[in-house]
Amino acid sequence: MLLDYPTLKLIWWLLVGVLLVGFAIMDGHDMGVGTLLPFVGRNDEERRVVINTVGPHWDGNQVWFITGGGAIFAAWPLVYATAFSGFYWAMLAVLWALFFRPVGFDYRSKIHNATWRSTWDWGLFVGGAVPPLIFGVAFGNLFQGVPFHFDDSLVSTYTGSFWALLNPFALLVGVVSSAMITMHGGMYLAHRTEGDVQRRAIRGATLAAVAMVVAFAAAGLCLRYGGIDGYAIASMPATDALPDPLAKTVVRSADAWWANYARVPAIWLLPILGFAGALLAVWQVRAGRTLTAFVLSSLSIVGVIGTAGASLFPFVMPSSTHPGASLTVWDSVSSHLTLTLMFWATVLFMPIIVAYTSWAYRVMRGKVTVEQIRANEHSAY
């Protein structure tokens, strides 16, 4: 079956969204656990319990991160090139923070020294806390527009600075992202632990969920009443035309980010899911139904990321300095052939990844306890 070009453009917008959600759910709970590590583990044994809940899985979950980056590179090459130019130092900060994860997991328990282990614990905290914050800040800047433009050869030029990215609204969205991932990690930790560690994890997940709900609502109010103009396409070539981001006309208006909700009211289900998933997850985890809480936390992530994507659509990376150069679903993509080959490769390999991941979590399910740690003193973690 040969899919037409406009349909493939839409499919790849959805698939990139699925990869981002998969990354936030799967690698996100690892990062959330790392963020909570210094606070829910009060001694070395408790911290080893925390680390062992994600130790066997964290590197496998990186597949979602790598696949997401690869998909953006192949499906949206203009977005990839422009984003990595404009967000260069931010992306390097993410990379530097992620360095702490493999070495932290591998080296932390190699030496029986309190200072050594405490240092790596805080390294794992940095590796878990920094990336979600920066990714959230990046999304916050997308809603305000990124200062870039193209020349006649479609070479992008970024005219902003790193510090300009750290504006109040972007930092607020960073809080949404950070709290969301911390909540998710706390729900997972509550499911895999017991006793004092579990009680602290539930407390941490509850506080993070409340922070996420408040910040998520505040971000929505800022977009509606905070003077942040959205973007709308006034004219553009046919959706099956070859990509040319300079061939359209874009205007800005105060209610542009809300236009999709008026056109398709069902989109309101996404922010509702974001709020309800987090609040219901808190209710369930405090009632002792930890697996249900983790599922609800995952649904909350779907709602939050889905809200961002649906609000921005069809824009992927708006330009604040030259709105007409903004990148959209229709004009930032690869060729018809490239999208087709990638689509069928995804259809083939995605079920394998999901099946393998499900099998791995099933095999290594169950609680991690202090008694297990004492009985396996020389384990990898």
Order of helices and strands: HHHHHHEEHHEEHHHEEHH
Q: Regions with pLDDT < 50 over 5+ consecutive residues? A: none
Strand content: 5-15%
Structural class: mainly alpha
Shape: globular
Helix content estimate: 55-70%
Distance between the termini: 48 Å
* Secondary structure: number of strands: 6
Count of alpha/pi helices: 13
User: On the 0-100 scale, what is the average pLDDT?
Assistant: 92
Strand order of the largest sheet: 1-2
The biggest sheet amounts to:
2 strands, antiparallel
Radius of gyration: 21 Å
Your description of this structure?
The chain is mainly alpha-helical and 381 residues long. The chain has a domain of 265 residues. The protein has a two-stranded antiparallel sheet. Strand 1 and strand 2 form a beta hairpin. Helix 1 packs antiparallel against helix 2, helix 1 runs antiparallel to helix 6 and helix 6 packs across helix 7. The longest helix is centred in the first third of the chain and has 36 residues. The protein is globular and about 65 Å long.
